[in-house]
Design brief:
Length: 241
Amino acid sequence: MKLIQEKILSEGVVLPGGVLNAGGFLNQMIDTVFMKEVGKEIASLFKDNMPTKILTIEASGIGIAVAAGTIMKIPVGWCTYNGDHMSMYAVNSSVPKTLVGFICRSYAGMCGNSELKEVLESICDTPITPELTPSKDGRIAQKTEEKIGKYDLNDFFLFYTLRYGFEPSRTAAYALKTYPELSLDEVREAAGKFFKRFFAQQFKRSCLPDGPKVGSVSLSPRGDWRMPSDASVRMWLEDLE
């Protein structure tokens, strides 16, 4: 893109090792007039095939994405890996969403404030959804629980795997006793989804900042859970079968 090339040549700084520093206009400081023109040029490339959203990384791409999204009038999202989950204290390293919901609902019943009670219960009653999935006709288009399975069942697998070190087959056997309404195939499918996701997402847990251990299970890489990010789930799935 000629506009960006000219800007880099005129204001970019080449650091030792051949690293280009565009912080003066692209990230640390953003040249808003320049960025608007970049957005127009990007939008022109998609005039015959308009996208529905823009997804970028949480770094230098945000300014450009926002400018292009503004021109095309579409939403902008960005990947949060190495972004918001490293920028603060990891308060949820041992607190799952289900426990947060339980605490909020419990407090709503004892806070003695009717307005606060209504707000907290409304939050708890709202299904968890992917943050970048738009609604359809004002209704939730996708519920996370429908994709990954029952939250309490996922918590069940997590607890017995981490707290007691159960192998997948033993955890599934316990789940069959605890959830008699589920068949063996349903438990196997749910457990398979859980272990695949658990292994695939380890790279996010490996770089978590400091966090408290609230219960008997913690996923902090500095505490109870030390797992290589490239660990394979194959043997766990074989045991499950």
